[in-house]
């Protein structure tokens, strides 16, 4: 991948791991944050705490109701509470990115920011590739697509508006990132990732059997970087887990 990578994220645990993957794999990575797991402002602080990537704060979806599936701080209680300086114009960053045919946008959360940026541009100016996590076909019963549900209007608009838009379904993302709970427990990210790993392992255990976690967002960033082989993606997950120390 020769162009820039922009990661639009809602700042949860697998979002942190995905951003670490990009930080160690692609030198031209920017991050924008959207409300989802936590507010866009808290998501920016989470990414800024765990990476050195440039971060810009975006907006929260209308009527956002946080589920705190990754803890009230989005990182399972591992926020250090330090307020770091971040940019304040994620939509502006995305507006520029969407006009560049060399750029790929990896959307890991609700599509509110991307829709806001795309809505200010003529269709012919939308030349970037956008890859988003969404879709629950063939997933375990009860699994929710929280990204789409958080802002259905933005999801529909973005998918129909941007010519080079692709969904990566949760089933594919889970399969590519299957990681044994023992690997998570032995990593530097054990405290950060434990609760999310146990929850996803319980959900996917009905499909896979065993005790393997899923870290969906890492698969999206890997796909944006051109890496789709499951073994390589799982290696990226392990490397990101080992890069964390909390």
General description of the model:
The chain has 11 helices and 8 strands. The protein has a single domain (5-169, 216-227), classed as Ribonucleoside hydrolase-like (Inosine-uridine Nucleoside N-ribohydrolase, Chain A, Alpha-Beta Complex). The longest helix has 19 residues, at 190-208. The chain has a 6-stranded parallel sheet, sandwiched between helices. The protein has a two-stranded antiparallel sheet with strand order 7-8. With 246 residues, it is an alpha/beta fold. Strand 1, helix 1 and strand 2 (29-33) form a beta-alpha-beta unit. Helix 7 (170-176) packs across helix 10. The two termini are 31 Å apart. The chain is globular, with a radius of gyration of 16 Å.
Keywords:
single chain; 246 residues; alpha/beta; 6-stranded parallel sheet; globular
How would you sum up this structure in a few lines?
With about 250 residues, the chain is of the alpha/beta class. The chain has helices at about 15-25, 40-50, 90-100, 110-120, 145-150, 150-160, 170-175, 180-185, 190-210, 215-225, 230-245; strands spanning about 5-10, 30-35, 55, 105, 130-135, 165-170, 180, 210-215. The chain has a single domain (about 5-170, about 215-225), classed as Ribonucleoside hydrolase-like (Inosine-uridine Nucleoside N-ribohydrolase, Chain A), CATH 3.90.245.
